[in-house]
Amino acid sequence: MSALRVVQVGAGGMGRAWIGAISRHDDTELVGLVDLDLGTARAALDDAGLAGVAVGTSASEVAAAVSADAVVNVTVPGAHLPVNVEALAAGYPVLCEKPAAPTVADALRQAAAAQVHGRLLMISQSRRYFDGFAALRAQTARLGALGAVATEFFKAPRFGGFRDEMDHVLLVDMAIHSFDAARALIGSDPVAVYAEEYNPSWSWYRGASNAVAVFEFADGVRYTYTGSWCAPGLETSWNGRWRVSGADGSAEWDGDGAPVSSLDAPAAGDPAPEQIDGSLAEFVAAVRTGLRPTTDARANVASLAMVEGAVQSATTGRRVRISDVLDAASARAIEVESDDAVRAVLETWRG
């Protein structure tokens, strides 16, 4: 079977990582690179040692010129909606970096556009793709009815740049990884959230770098997230430290190695591609088989709603129902959407 011909949009730092992933994958070939700065695109290709890749400023134009099969969107979150809709309308399946969009309303709009155009839109939640996390999910499935799931995340990165000035920096820019993984682990979507955020006196971030959030899931399961982005010393993994408690036992994962459980461990599965390589592998399989990926755009909206709900709760000091977040986002999406067909899908979803 011939390789999937891919046009990538975005050639910045994360874009370079995706160029590497596409080049490593046996079933993908980078045939086009799109960026508003053509010099940045050409420099990224030169550094990757790639020749013969088309360069341009329009995803649909470059994709048509090179007879592409798919688009990978690695632009900044604010550009996800227009880039994704352009590619979907031109007939291409899209793999888009997380978060799907800056707001739940925009995430719903592009998910509806994918349905209207009959094309796949998958969001890359790359931290689902770790062998250790896959093993933790296997352990969790044997614990019986779940009662509590918890993540501790403590890091002290000094990024500089835009993150230092972001509002709600931990919840908005990082916590979605853990929130999305919790959905995968628990196997359902959240019902409500209560959250608090704050900024220690020594923090180098303008916005709140520390947060605590408690999510209620179906059947009374509670997911607790405790995190800090200014906690030097004894730092956790970038995946955080996890504990799962069920009726028949408990499991723990340090975020790096293999999980441990109070039960006998199931047989280890075969190693699989990790992080963005794992996202890319699932996307390729979904395009070829037509099977729905685990982070299809419509399903992924719930992960972004967890972030938006946590921010609302931390801002208001009140418990927030996720259904209220989705209802308000749906209303906003319908209000601002100009495409009649997309708006009709949104109305159906809201009903």
Q: Could you describe the 3D structure shown?
A:
This is Gfo/Idh/MocA family oxidoreductase. Keywords: NAD, Oxidoreductase. Residues 4-123 form the Gfo/Idh/MocA-like oxidoreductase N-terminal domain. The protein is α/β, with parallel strands linked by helices and 351 residues long. The chain has two domains: 4-127 and 275-298, Rossmann fold (3-Layer(aba) Sandwich); 131-261, Dihydrodipicolinate Reductase, domain 2 (2-Layer Sandwich), CATH 3.30.360. Helix content is 41%, strand content 22%. The protein has helices spanning 13-24, 38-48, 59-65, 77-89, 104-117, 131-140, 169-173, 175-186, 275-289, 297-316, 322-336, 340-350; strands at residues 4-9, 28-34, 54-56, 70-73, 94-97, 121-124, 146-154, 190-198, 210-217, 222-228, 241-246, 249-253, 260-261, 320-321. An eight-stranded mixed sheet has the order 13-12-11-7-10-9-8-14. The chain has a six-stranded parallel sheet with strand order 3-2-1-4-5-6, sandwiched between helices.
